[in-house]
């Protein structure tokens, strides 16, 4: 941990800390094995909890007998779904009807709806004993038919998951802008694609879910030590369910071992643990196993696109498109149906389409509930658009580079209003694409490709491009587009900047970083404001209900810290600076405008002889107050809270229009792949990732996020998938089967950046942690390029097996299956 | 109906210090290290020997401690991240932004240090091969490979922009 006197790096007096590639403050403890993750937390008298989970994808729960478990010495108690239904109320549903009618409790009550659905909890003296006891719980199930496909689930004849709804459609709505009927009737060409499928995967944080929960019987306070990444949302979900006040719930976290959105979805488990603690009268500790995580934590969104039709002019202008989207929410709505609007932040992705109609249906299936996962709901939509653009280029013989440049939002268009009134803040996509191609050596690769593909030696080379947006800082008012009754709008984050009694500088955030370097970047920004070294600023990241300050949106998710969290830290530090300057002016008997802050000292115009150190400033406020005039003493506390609030209006839920996000970072990736014709194996020969996230607070941190998001996309495109068989069994319930990307699966990445400062954020920065899933588009594009126009890459997941199938189609004459072009 | 839990007496060296204790026969080494020895730097990520977050050294060999019983370390020397191994390598991890959430880091450092002991000048591919048993979900491995290369080649690239490093 960084000491108060630590110097971070040599610095010239004129260069701000913000923008420098400083090494991270967090690393010292993490590299010493001294991070504090949730499984490192113990409480006195704690028991170990273990869930009993359904082996069936869909079944009636006939009976649950915990007797044999309770008979084991060392087993404290057990909790069943039936008891839970007595002790608490169903979770609040974000969805209006029909999805809003779903009754979900922290444990399944009379039915299980996916493999891994929890039916009971046991609590025992040791971890091993808890597992043994869970094995002895006897559950009698009556298996039911399952449905594991989102489109089939919408069919009224499919097995129904939630009888209270009577069918499986959770949410349905049409988003329509411009006049796509006119465009399709009048365009020179119409390109149709029957079906595209964005597969189910997960970023699988290396640290699984976990929590230690104590519902104290005396004070009635519920202490939650967890790795949940959106604890106020967790409070909003759990407080009514548990029949407890929000003020009773105290969440804490320190280090979190990766989250990627998924750790928003740990609230149902935390709720069950709270009830177990209440029943047991002791703290309960739970560490999710990896298999539990794969089965039941939360999966990324899976989406099927049907009947995609694009209207294209002879000059290559793409007027727009129409599509039917079926989103697979899994068995319950966790954070959903917010995904049914969040994709609309990037309605037209990087392009100037004017006419767009999306008929969006979210269905329930006998699969793990989905939840936010890096690039939540947007990367599905943008992948579909990239496939559309490539298909148009290939089928109508446009150059894929020129077609993109023609249809991209142009540098002079910013701020650019999309048909649904989102505002793209800044960027230079054509330049970014040129830089990506230059780094790739595009022309040389095209020559090499022609040679290799002509040689007919069992190898094919393809070159692909993917362009995406990372929309950051949500306007939560978009929730009203899925449910006009929801009282949410805007966004924000809070911070406290403090000068402590011996002159120590501290910043408290309401965020829950999982590797995003908040301690480092906050210290850089605050050091510039307070005229000190970042090593002198101690940043308390991680959520601490009593110590942190927070707003309803606090947490770390959805690419917003660089705007909201840093915005709050800037505001708080500026307030603190004002108080320090006022105290210094009093001490040095001069005007406030004559005070300079540098090197941790306040001086009269830089005069070292007429200066006061921070300890002296702190003394005046904390311990020497009688020396201050009342008007000054009343003004200062040296504990300065600030809430950053981005400028948003509530969107219009009727027209489904409005500003849904404040900033738009963008990514342009380009890759070269080689396909082995005998096996279908895809190898990445070269990969470039360009990023434009506006002003960069710490380039090394930004680049690390680019690498990570790229690896997730590459892993998903070629390896990682969560598939269910026809009986609802998950086929990848361990890391053996799931194969998260290893160091050998990710190629050496060439990276670069364009810097288009955002006019909308305090510091020109844009949130950027999620990336836009550009690798999924890029690799699909490259495989398509290698295979040619006779077959269609119609899935995000392109294993050797799937590419081999496409090669077989090609060997059998191709025939453009799934694609139709009409020209007039 | 409760079974009497079998135990074993073990003697071992922990980060250079002699220890003796009794462990349940079925206790995993990783739980022994974390719960009984109270060394929290060794992490659990997968339970199946894939992810390497629990990697430690046993008699100098790299071991995934979720794949070994505590009873098996009788007479062995265990080294964990708390011993402060490979200082230069850990500094390189810091300089190259090779840490994000930090959960894989102790295991990653153990594997990278083992590689450099046995192959002081690895190629980029050899580094990736040596680290393939350690999953990192945050960094995409790029900066971890750079950190290992930095030590292997004595490169000084700290603070360089990505263009300079690419």
Describe this structure in words.
The complex is a heterodimer of chains A (824) and B (166). Chain A is of the alpha+beta class and 824 residues long. Helix content of chain A is 28%, strand content 24%. Chain A has 23 helices and 29 strands. In chain A, the strands form seven sheets. Chain A has a seven-stranded mixed beta sheet, with helices on both faces. In chain A, strands 7-15-14-13-8-29 form a six-stranded mixed beta sheet. Chain A has a four-stranded mixed beta sheet with strand order 18-26-27-28, sandwiched between helices. Chain A is globular and about 90 Å long. Chain A starts with 26 loop residues before the first helix and ends with a strand. Chain B has a five-stranded mixed beta sheet, covered by helices on one side. In chain B, helix 2 crosses helix 5 (142-153). Chain B has 166 residues and is α+β, with helices and mostly antiparallel strands. Chain B has two domains: 7-83, Ubiquitin-like (UB roll), CATH 3.10.20; 87-154, DNA polymerase, domain 1 (Orthogonal Bundle), CATH 1.10.150. Chain B has helices spanning 29-36, 87-95, 105-118, 124-130, 142-153, 162-165; strands at residues 7-14, 17-24, 55-58, 61-64, 77-79. Chain B starts with 6 loop residues before the first strand and ends with a helix. At the A-B interface, helix 1, helix 20 and strand 28 of A face helix 2, helix 3, helix 4 and helix 5 of B.
Which band does the percent of strand residues of chain A land in?
15-25%
**Can you identify the CATH superfamily of the largest domain in chain A?**
Aldehyde oxidase/xanthine dehydrogenase, molybdopterin binding domain
Poorly predicted runs of chain A are 1-12
What is the CA-CA span between the terminal residues of chain A?
68 Å
The CATH topology of the largest domain in chain A comes to Aldehyde Oxidoreductase, domain 4
Q: Whole-number average pLDDT of chain A?
A: 96
Q: Under the CATH scheme, which class of the largest domain in chain B?
A: Alpha Beta
């Amino acid at each position: 941990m960084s000491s108060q006197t630590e110097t971070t790096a040599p610095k010239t007096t004129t260069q701000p800390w913000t923008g420098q590639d400083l090494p991270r403050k967090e690393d010292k403890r993490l590299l010493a094995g001294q991070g504090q993750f949730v499984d490192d937390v113990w409480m006195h008298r704690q028991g170990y909890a273990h869930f009993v989970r359904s082996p069936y994808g869909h079944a009636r729960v006939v009976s649950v007998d915990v007797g044999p478990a309770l008979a084991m010495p060392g087993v404290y108690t057990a909790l069943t779904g039936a008891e839970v239904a007595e002790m608490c109320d169903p979770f609040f549903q974000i969805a209006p009807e029909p999805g809003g009618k779903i009754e979900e409790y922290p444990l399944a009550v009379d039915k299980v709806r996916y493999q891994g659905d929890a039916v009971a909890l046991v609590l025992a003296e040791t971890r091993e004993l808890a597992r043994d006891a869970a094995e002895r719980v006897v559950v009698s199930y009556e298996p039911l038919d399952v449905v594991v496909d989102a489109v089939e689930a919408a069919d009224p004849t499919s097995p129904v998951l939630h009888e209270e709804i009577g069918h499986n459609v959770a949410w349905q709505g049409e988003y329509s802008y411009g006049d796509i009927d006119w465009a399709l009737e009048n365009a020179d060409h119409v390109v149709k694609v029957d079906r595209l499928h964005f597969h189910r995967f997960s970023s699988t944080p290396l640290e699984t879910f976990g929590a230690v929960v104590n519902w104290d019987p005396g004070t009635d306070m519920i202490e939650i030590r967890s790795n949940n990444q959106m604890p106020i949302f967790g409070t909003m979900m759990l407080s009514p369910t548990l029949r407890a006040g929000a003020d009773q719930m105290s969440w804490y976290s320190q280090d979190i071992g990766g989250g990627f959105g998924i750790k928003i979805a740990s609230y149902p488990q935390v709720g069950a643990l709270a009830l177990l603690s209440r029943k047991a009268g002791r703290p309960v500790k739970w560490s999710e196993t990896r298999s539990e995580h794969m089965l039941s934590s939360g999966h990324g969104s899976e989406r099927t696109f049907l009947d995609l039709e694009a209207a294209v002019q002879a000059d290559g202008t793409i007027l727009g498109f129409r599509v039917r989207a079926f989103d697979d929410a899994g068995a319950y709505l966790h954070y959903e149906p917010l995904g049914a609007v969040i994709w609309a932040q990037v309605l037209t992705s990087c392009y100037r389409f004017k006419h767009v109609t999306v008929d969006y249906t979210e269905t329930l299936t006998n699969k793990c509930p989905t939840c936010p996962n890096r690039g939540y709901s947007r990367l599905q939509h943008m992948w579909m658009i990239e496939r559309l653009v490539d298909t148009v280029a290939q089928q109508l013989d446009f150059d894929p580079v020129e077609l993109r440049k023609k249809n991209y939002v142009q540098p002079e268009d910013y701020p650019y209003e999309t048909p649904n009134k989102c505002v793209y803040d800044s960027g230079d996509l054509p330049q970014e694409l040129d830089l990506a191609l230059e780094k790739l050596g595009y022309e040389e690769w095209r020559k090499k490709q022609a040679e290799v593909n002509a040689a007919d030696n069992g190898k094919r080379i393809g070159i692909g491009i993917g362009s995406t947006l990372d929309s950051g800082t949500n306007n939560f008012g978009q929730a009203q587009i899925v449910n006009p009754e929801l009282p949410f709008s805007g966004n924000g984050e809070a911070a406290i900047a403090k000068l402590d009694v011996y002159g120590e500088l501290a910043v408290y955030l309401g965020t829950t970083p999982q590797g995003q370097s908040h301690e480092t970047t906050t210290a850089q920004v605050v050091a510039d404001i307070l005229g000190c070294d970042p090593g002198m600023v101690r940043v308390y990241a991680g959520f601490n209900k009593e110590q942190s300050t927070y707003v309803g949106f606090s947490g770390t998710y959805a690419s917003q810290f660089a705007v909201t969290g840093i915005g709050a830290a800037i505001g708080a530090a500026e307030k603190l600076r004002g108080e320090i300057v006022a105290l210094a002016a009093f001490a040095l008997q001069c005007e406030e405008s004559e005070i300079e802050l540098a090197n941790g000292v306040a001086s009269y115009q830089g005069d070292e002889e007429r200066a006061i150190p921070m300890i002296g400033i702190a003394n005046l406020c904390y311990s020497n107050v009688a020396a201050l005039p009342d008007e000054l003493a009343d003004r200062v506390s040296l504990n300065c809270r600030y809430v950053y609030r981005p400028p948003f209006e509530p969107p219009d839920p009727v027209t489904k229009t409005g500003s849904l996000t404040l900033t738009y970072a963008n990514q342009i990736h380009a890759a070269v792949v080689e396909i082995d014709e005998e096996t279908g194996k895809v190898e990445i020969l070269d990969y470039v990732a360009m990023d434009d996230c506006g002003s960069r607070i710490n380039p090394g941190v930004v680049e690390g996020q680019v690498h990570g998001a790229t690896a997730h996309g590459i892993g998903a495109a070629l390896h990682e998938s969560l598939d269910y068989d026809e009986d609802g069994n998950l086929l990848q319930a361990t890391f053996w089967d799931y194969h998260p990307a290893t160091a050998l699966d990710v190629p050496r990445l060439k990276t670069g950046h364009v810097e288009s400062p955002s006019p909308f954020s305090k510091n020109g920065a844009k949130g950027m942690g999620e990336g836009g899933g550009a690798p999924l588009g890029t690799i699909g594009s490259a495989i398509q390029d290698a295979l040619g126009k006779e077959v269609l890459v119609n899935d995000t997941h392109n294993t050797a097996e799937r590419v081999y199938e496409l090669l077989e189609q090609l060997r059998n004459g191709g025939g453009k299956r799934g694609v139709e072009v009409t020209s007039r | 109906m409760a079974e009497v839990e079998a135990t074993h007496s073990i003697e071992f060296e922990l980060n250079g210090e002699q220890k003796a204790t009794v462990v349940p026969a079925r206790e995993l080494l990783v739980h022994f290290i974390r719960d009984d020895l109270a060394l929290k730097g060794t992490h659990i990520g997968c339970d199946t020997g894939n992810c390497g977050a629990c990697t430690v050294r046993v008699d100098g060999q790299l071991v995934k401690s979720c794949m070994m019983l505590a009873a098996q370390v009788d007479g062995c020397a265990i080294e964990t991240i708390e011993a402060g191994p490979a200082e230069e390598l850990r500094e390189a991890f810091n300089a190259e932004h090779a840490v994000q959430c930090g959960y894989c880091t102790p295991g990653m450092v153990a594997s990278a240090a083992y590689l450099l002991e046995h192959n002081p000048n690895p190629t980029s591919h050899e580094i990736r091969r040596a680290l393939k048993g350690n999953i990192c979900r945050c960094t995409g491995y790029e900066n971890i490979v750079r950190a290992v290369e930095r030590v292997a080649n004595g490169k000084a690239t700290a603070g360089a922009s990505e263009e300079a490093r690419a």
